[in-house]
Write a structure and sequence with these properties.
Blueprint: E1 2-8, E2 12-21, E3 24-35, H1 42-45, H2 50-69, E4 74-79, H3 81-85, H4 89-100, E5 103-106, H5 109-121, E6 132-137, E7 142-148, E8 151-158, H6 162-169, H7 177-194, E9 204-208, H8 210-219, H9 227-230, E10 234-236, H10 237-248, H11 252-255, H12 269-282, E11 287-291, H13 295-307
Parallel strand pairs: 1-4, 4-5, 6-9, 9-11
Antiparallel strand pairs: 1-2, 2-3, 6-7, 7-8, 10-11
């Protein structure tokens, strides 16, 4: 089956078109990302902003043409933290479905976590019993999923995200040391309360989505971005801490010029890096594997199987 997945997130809107056969992605035809900041202001105002909606719709106009040209048999939009948190989120999702013919699905935290874990582990041996943490740092939430093989044994969706914590705490350019401390303190409190002690003992960790992939690209000074060199890259905690110091010490305009960092991710990469470090500290991780395989792949596998 040829399936198109659109991930409408808090910070970015992404497209994935793939061939899925017998529970495997056999060919990736499209993978595109645009930072659209749908969640800008949701934490403070409780609703999606008209300008943010317009940015997403402009991107979806382009994606719709690509999906049509690829003749996708099933077309699904998954909508996450910003949409489920916003008072007008359901109205927005219905509009997306009507305008673009996408099956619009607002994911709750459990669904988002399970699809993320499926995507991140999809190419691993399903009989492998290593206890693995998969973390997805989004714009408005961070998913933490612990499992073995394909089996999820614990998951939680937390109210820590790169847009949310940036808007709450990082008000100077470059951010002040006290502001960075506020991000770290709040994230430590949020995830510490969300993850029971007995779920913190993991043997392996995989980081997906914009923060870890950006850090892997920055660490290698990838210009242009090379997904093959990002996939499987190992980020150690000391390296993440050095990158945080480097990125937080320069202005936003200077961060936009950092090799490996997409300019549109420059406003939120500091908060994202701080969140990743706090996750590694909570789970006592010295390193984390970076993966390009995330909720997009998980959703493609799940919804292709459901249509079979």
């Amino acid at each position: 089956m040829r399936i198109a997945i659109v991930d409408i997130g808090t910070n970015s809107t992404r497209l994935f078109v793939a061939e899925v056969e017998r529970g495997c992605v056999t060919a990736q035809l499209e993978r595109l990302t645009r930072v659209t900041r749908l969640g800008a202001g949701v934490d403070a105002n409780g609703k999606l902003d008209d300008a943010a909606i317009a940015r997403v719709l402009a991107t979806l106009d382009d994606y719709a043409r690509i999906i049509e040209s690829r003749h996708a048999e099933r077309r699904v939009a998954v909508l996450t933290s910003a949409v489920r948190d916003a008072a007008n989120g359901a109205e927005f999702a219905a509009g997306v479905q009507a305008r673009y013919g996408l099956e619009a699905k607002i994911l709750d935290g459990e669904e988002e976590a399970r699809l993320t874990f499926l995507g991140a582990t999809s190419e691993l041996d399903p009989d492998e019993r290593t206890i693995t943490l998969v973390t997805d740092i989004g714009g408005g939430s961070t998913e933490l999923v612990v499992g073995e093989g394909r089996e999820v044994r614990f998951h939680v969706s937390t109210q820590a995200g790169v847009v949310r914590q940036t808007e709450r705490h990082l008000h100077h350019d470059p951010p002040l040391a006290g502001e960075l401390d506020q991000v770290a303190d709040e994230v430590r409190s949020i995830i510490g309360a969300a993850v029971p002690e007995e779920q913190r003992r993991v043997e392996h960790a995989i980081g997906v989505a914009g923060t870890p992939t950006s850090l892997a690209a920055i660490a290698q000074a990838l210009d242009p971005y090379d997904p093959d060199r990002v996939q499987g890259y190992i980020l150690d905690r000391a390296k993440c801490e050095r990158l945080l110091q480097r990125l937080a010490a320069i202005s936003l305009s200077e961060r936009r010029e950092v090799p490996g960092l997409h300019p549109d991710r420059a406003p939120t990469i500091v908060a994202g890096t701080a969140i990743l470090i706090e996750i590694m500290r909570l789970f006592e991780l010295e390193r984390i594997e970076v993966s390009e395989h995330d909720i997009l792949r998980g959703a493609a596998l799940r919804f292709a199987a459901a249509a079979a």
